[in-house]
Write a structure and sequence with these properties.
single chain, 95 residues, alpha+beta, 15% strand, globular
């Protein structure tokens, strides 16, 4: 899933979310590090519609690599470092 052309975008998103303050402008509601980044911010960075970014973010959240938090009417996404480490260990073991 992460080795397809669209997977490159998902890898970019995961990389940006390692240090969201370095890659995204401050948000009106929610802290970039504590709460996460909105789909709109990711869409602007990718240069795509928000619905496309939501698809990528939703897939990453569904497999557990991202955590979500609702603030007002927006969903904020941040990395789940524990789950990412677990997945990395599975691939290192040849899974």
């Amino acid at each position: 899933m992460l080795r397809t052309p669209t997977g490159e975008r998902r890898l970019d998103i995961l990389e940006w979310l390692k240090d969201p303050a370095a890659h995204f402008p401050p948000q009106r509601h929610g802290d970039l590090v504590e709460d996460g980044v909105t789909a709109g911010a990711v869409a602007r960075k990718l240069g795509v519609r928000r619905s496309v970014a939501e698809t990528h973010l939703g897939l990453l959240a569904d497999i557990g690599l991202l955590r979500t938090r609702r603030i007002r009417r927006r969903t904020h996404y941040r990395r789940d470092e524990i789950r990412i480490a677990e997945v990395a260990r599975m691939f290192e073991k040849g899974w």
